[in-house]
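Sequence, structure tokens reproduced for absentees:
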Amino acid sequence: MLMLIARENMALTLSAIAAGLFALVGISWGLWIGSLVILFDGAYSLVSVVLSLLSLYAARVIRRPACADYPFGRGAIEPLVIAVKGLVIALVCLLSMVSAVMALIEGGRAVSADMAMVFAAVSVVGCLAVWLYLAWVGKRVGSGLVVAERRQWLMDTVLSAAVLIGFGVGAWLEQSAWSALAVYADPVMMVLISAYFIVVPVKMTAGAVRELMLAAPPESVADEVHGVLKAEGILPQQVKMAKIGPSLMLEIRLPGNWPGRIERLKRDLMQELAELPVRPAIFIRNSLV
């Protein structure tokens, strides 16, 4: 357990440091060559720094033991943080799209495609390296916060690759008979990228809000739980499930004539469900048939 906690902290810390470096370089480079897309990349990284620090703080809060004020622990902070991250990223995408549309209306923006491609190439390699590391950690830790960080870096990787391809097209336009269109390459890319990427944070937020509303867990988790319960003679209609953060809340209703001991059943279920990607919290009550 301590090793998993250490890995999660290391992953979130590394994500924050890397985002800070990319933000500094991206904003400076974007201002230098006057590129909206690279400025967006840097601004996205700057937002990622704040969000990564927020995730790091949330990871520590979640591990605090239950108390009188929080008898079920603080697991709900995980989907809350993910919802905030999704909303902030969506806002960045929306503002960037508006800025790009205004640039198009004003007649485009002249950008040095060669210098932009240098930044984009370095950014692709760096973002891909961080994403691969977070993907590796995510498989071993099973943290929703690490998964959210991984999605952020996947977006940044694809964004940098799109910038590289887009400015490659822009460099070709500059040398072609359509050189007058080259000034539209930067804002057009920004519009397309913002419109595409806004879907990801919206889905992140929707999924987090579902958890905060105590929605049912993913079908794969529910099927695995029902398989274990069926072996104990417990039918699906006797069970209510909700995933919230790192916890899976299970309420099991047993008939009044249940033959076994409830404490033993609870202990057995905890052991059988130990391999789930979420931590089960089991509540059992008796009721007459």
User: Anything to note?
Assistant: Residues 66 and 73 are 4 Å apart (CA to CA). Strands lie at 239-244, 247-255, 279-287. The first strand starts at residue 239 and ends at 244.
